[in-house]
Amino acid sequence: MSSGNEIIVGGHKVAHHFDSAEQEFEASKLGIWLFLCTEILMFGGLFVGYVIFHNIYPEMFAEGAKHLDWRLGSLNTVVLLLSSFTMVLSIYYAQTNQQKKTSNMLLITFLCGLVFMVIKAFEYYHKFHLGLYPGSYFSYEHAEHANLAMYFSFYFLMTGLHGTHVLVGMFLIAWLWIRSRRKEFNKDYYTPLEVVGLFWHLVDIIWIYLFPLLYLVG
Amino acid sequence: MSASHAEGKNYLNCEKGLWSWLTTLDHKRIGIMYMITVMVFFAVGGTFAMLIRGELYSAGRNIVGPETYNQFMTFHGAIMVFMVIIPGIPAFLGNFFLPMHLGAKDVAFPRVNLLSWYCLIVGAAISLVSLIYNGVDTGWTFYTPYSIETNNGTTWMVAGAFVMGFSSILTGLNFIVTTHKLRAPGMTFFNMPLFVWALYSTAVLQVLATPVLGITLMLLIAERVLGVGIFDPTLGGDPVLFQHFFWFYSHPAVYIMILPAMGIVSEIITAFSRKVIFGYKAIAFSSVGIAVVSFFVWGHHMFTSGQSEAAGILFSFITMLVGVPTAIKVFNWVATLYKGSVRFDSPMLFALGFLFLFTIGGVTGIMLATAGLDIHFHDTYFVVAHFHYVMVGGTLMAIMGGFYYWLPKMFGRMYNEFWARITFVLIFVGFNVTFFPQFILGAMGMPRRYYDYLPEFQSLNRISSFGAWTIGTGFLIALFVIIHSIRRGEKATSNPWGAKTLEWTTSSPPPHENFLETPVVTGGPYEFR
Ligand code: HEM
Ligand SMILES: [Cu+2]
């Protein structure tokens, strides 16, 4: 395939170093899967730390979990699951050329992310109010376990890193929403939806692990 | 984007100006930017090395005090590891030649490739901020709890290393996808040059190990800023956990440093023996084998940390297993030389130097892997000598060999063979003079990282310092050889070495899209008759 001839599929110009739109799509998918592996390994470090210290101080983790409100946690779980579902629908609608619905679904996904973050912010605010800060800033006076501060270190590190991912995801979804309003996605070209979608599902799955580990232990 | 195919147009002159470089998406140009960056870092790290050897020339104080010495030692190690050896081969030579070896026009994600370069630059800039806060004195390993207590420069250095980690991850990710998805027609996995196999195995390590370093460094920052207590015994945490996390990355990282070097050596040895490489598949699979095993040996850095005896024995045993695929490679290279028509141009000299020095490094690694012996050797100059034999004697020799080997392709110019050989002699001899005495010093019990030493260690330390300055001279001359070649060297033909891999089938320097027509591959990479 000589250079110079541009390949345009579904309104999208295939980058010059690919021979076909399909090759480009496959490459993007492999790329995002590898990226998800790096994310899992990064969170993996925190999970390993959690497991180790949970083994050493099980009562401390149980005490910490009592300070979290499992109802808010469950609500957030539901919100994220719903957002994953609408993300999938947005891809489905793109594949079936229903562009209006694609952008609506993206909007709902974005709003779910927003709701999640607002609820999280309320929870954080409540903890700060009680002095349940991480590590050396911890100033809660009625702690039973000497190292309760460490539970909140884990809580804030894990949910903080996860929350950062939610924010990045929301940013990406907003960008997709703008593009979908410009009708850039259709049955022949929806790579960015697919890629961001996979990222969003990962963020969702990580929460599904965080929720029981932090809210329901003990 | 249509490349101009007019006579004389190539990737270097198809666009002009600094801006065209800083925004380029061409893997070859990004490779050259990495080349310059790594050379600058190497000069800085090397200067620290010269200063360290200056301070250790005699017992007692020579040029700086102990605090400054600790900073020199930390900056030397951190710069050389994170900014020179890790990006050195993959991001520079790999970026340039991986797509060409595959017959591709570029890497899979050119923008991500450029982003990875910016990550390196931004990371390096962040680490520089540490200088404002009294620098860093923890050593490149940032061991807790000291790294939690010492001055604030540490936070910046660690943050910088965190950002630079992304550079490495993104390069690795790009290489894996490129290898899977962008091979030219007929380029099956077993038609790929061994350099690609080596880079692929390296990329797997970069992608799977570096995120763990990322989270470790992030926890260390959180420890310093928030006092989260995970590594801090006074808050119920465990400082040894840091060592586990750190080595879970950093042992695979030593293979991130050496595997691509092995790839270069495979290329050079076949090309200059004019023979099909002996045991292609064995070399290819041993790269993958080393990559896999290297995830399960990190405990050999911690024999004295109080880990359980059973863990010690297990780690000792698995570490020795790494020796097997490593030795397989060495045997295959030697077998390739056997009855080849060997030419001793400088790339080959460096490859043979690699073979010799790396073997010493590997064998002393096995000695260290023996848990009982390591109790004696741990944290002595023996370890310092070991890892310099592999990182400098191995990786750096391979970078130099690869540099001379591919210089004609990258810049379309030949280098001065006479002076290049002089650099080899200076570096090779200087290297042994510097580091061999350190094995003896270590066995005699001289601890590493100390500012001062007992008077009886002085004569060997002096020899070592003279050796270091010899290496320094060698690299300085090499810099002139390279600059002279790029500016004034004779024009190179498209295949000055008569090598068989694809990059030699296109002009020197290559056109913007590497090949005027996508190559069609019909056989293996080393079809010498
Ligand atoms: C057969 C292969 C190898 C074996 C069996 C081996 C074994 C070891 C062992 C057991 C140690 C720990 C010694 C101690 O701290 O007491 C060590 C340290 C080290 N090795 Fe190797 N090694 C091998 C190859 C390499 C390679 C290829 C590199 C790098 C390119 C490397 C780089 C290092 C470094 C940097 C350290 C010291 C880290 C530090 O404490 O600062 N090794 N090696
Ligand atoms: Cu190791």
Going by CATH, the architecture of chain A would be Up-down Bundle
Radius of gyration of chain A: 21 Å
Shape of chain B: globular
Nearest-integer average pLDDT of chain B = 94
Please provide the ordered H/E string of secondary-structure elements of chain B: HHHHHHHHHHHHHHH
| Radius of gyration from the alpha-carbon trace of chain B, in angstroms | 23 Å
Q: What is the count of DSSP helices of chain B, taking H or I runs of 4+ residues? A: 15
Task: Give the secondary structure arrangement, pairings included.
The complex is a heterodimer of chains A (218) and B (529).
Chain A: E1 8-9, E2 12-13, H1 21-56, H2 58-66, H3 70-95, H4 99-130, H5 148-181, H6 191-215
Antiparallel strand pairs in A: 1-2
Helix pairs in contact in A: 1-2, 1-6, 3-4, 3-6, 4-5, 5-6
Chain B: H1 18-22, H2 27-55, H3 66-102, H4 110-129, H5 146-149, H6 153-181, H7 194-226, H8 239-273, H9 280-293, H10 309-337, H11 346-369, H12 371-377, H13 381-411, H14 417-444, H15 458-488
Helix pairs in contact in B: 2-3, 2-4, 2-15, 3-6, 3-7, 3-8, 3-13, 4-6, 6-7, 7-8, 7-9, 8-10, 8-11, 8-13, 9-10, 10-11, 11-13, 11-14, 13-14, 14-15
Copper (II) ion binds at residues 251, 254, 300-301 of chain B.
